């Protein structure tokens, strides 16, 4: 194909949206002009969005979803692109998470979103607003996204969800006892589900802990692997299996050294009683 510009999806959220739009269009064998006709815009407009020169609007994304038959996937990615409350790579990760057949996650410091109660999620977001880190609208976005992510995995054939929490997640008293007690009860409830495993990585693991930052590994329906990790300022979605496999191996090592689910639930019960 002549003059087909190489895309660089890691450059920005708009670039990632454009790369996804091109991939979906290519899968259907459509030209930019053909997609434009179906959406009621020009092929030049499609080109500008695909190459990241023109950020997508919500209306454009909704029209693209309708033309491509992708539900609301592009609209949701557009909303995430427009909001600064979400880290790079996270919107695409959430899409993969919603279709994953296995989810393995390790968290440090806070209860992960998939296990948060609404009160816990709201407390964290309100604190971020108070610090000036995000706006009230972005706080609402974060809380809403937690609920949507939890709903996406509560389907008729739910994924297997394996969670390892660093002990710091339990020791950090977010919102005080009125928030933490229901949150700890939620963890115990989660551990009792037939498609879950919950473990705690105690401080005693010390240097044997293979991860210093949160990490998630997803197994997709085609058995391919995707991993996601983030620091305070950025997230990274890894799609290459050769890079994800070592992370999966390290996760298995983490599980082997962490407390059993029975011992982990017992520790959580002790925290609920105020005597860890």
- State the helical fraction: 40-55%
Look at the helices and sheets and give the structural class: alpha/beta
Q: Can you tell me the CATH topology of the largest domain?
A: Endonuclease, Chain A
Distance between the termini: 64 Å
Q: Helix count, per DSSP?
A: 12
- Number of strand segments: 6
Considering the protein shown, what is the CATH homologous superfamily of the largest domain? Answer: Endonuclease Chain A
Reading the helices and strands in chain order gives: HHHHHHEHHEHHEEEEHH
The CATH class of the largest domain turns out to be Alpha Beta
Side-by-side strand order of the widest sheet? 3-2-1-4-5-6
- Average pLDDT reading: 89
Beta-strand percent range:
5-15%
Domain tally: 2
Unreliable runs:
none
General shape: elongated
How would you describe this protein?
The mean pLDDT is about 90. This protein has helices at about 15-25, 30-40, 45-50, 60-70, 75-80, 90-95, 120-130, 135-155, 165-170, 175-190, 240-255, 260-275; strands at about 100-105, 160-165, 195-200, 215-220, 225-230, 235-240. The protein is built from twelve helices and six strands. The chain is α/β, with parallel strands linked by helices. Helix content is about 50%, strand content about 10%. The protein is elongated. Strand 4 (about 215-220) and strand 5 form a beta hairpin.
């Amino acid at each position: 194909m002549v003059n087909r510009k190489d895309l660089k999806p890691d450059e920005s959220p708009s670039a990632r949206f454009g790369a996804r739009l091109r991939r979906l269009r290519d899968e259907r064998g459509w030209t930019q002009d053909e997609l434009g006709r179906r959406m009621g815009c020009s092929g030049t407009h499609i080109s500008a969005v695909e190459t990241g020169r023109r950020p997508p609007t919500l209306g454009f994304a909704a029209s693209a979803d309708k033309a491509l038959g992708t539900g609301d996937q592009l609209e949701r990615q557009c909303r995430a692109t427009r909001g600064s409350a979400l880290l790079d790579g996270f919107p695409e990760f959430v899409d993969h998470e919603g279709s994953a057949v296995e989810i393995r996650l390790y968290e440090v410091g806070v209860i992960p979103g998939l296990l948060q109660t609404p009160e816990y999620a709201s407390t964290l977001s309100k604190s971020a607003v108070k610090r000036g880190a995000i706006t009230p609208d972005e706080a609402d976005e974060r809380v809403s996204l937690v609920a949507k992510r939890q709903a996406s995995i509560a389907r008729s054939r739910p994924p297997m969800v394996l969670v390892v929490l660093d002990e710091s997640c339990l020791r950090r008293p977010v919102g005080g006892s009125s928030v933490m007690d229901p949150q700890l009860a939620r963890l115990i409830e989660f551990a009792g589900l037939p498609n879950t495993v919950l473990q705690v990585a105690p401080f005693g693991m010390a240097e044997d802990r293979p991860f210093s930052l949160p990490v998630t590994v997803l197994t997709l329906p085609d058995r391919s692997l995707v991993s996601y990790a983030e620091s305070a300022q950025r997230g990274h979605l890894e799609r290459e299996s050769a890079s994800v496999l070592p992370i999966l191996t390290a996760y298995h090592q983490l599980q082997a050294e962490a407390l059993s689910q029975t011992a982990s639930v017992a520790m959580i019960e002790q925290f609920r009683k105020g005597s860890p």
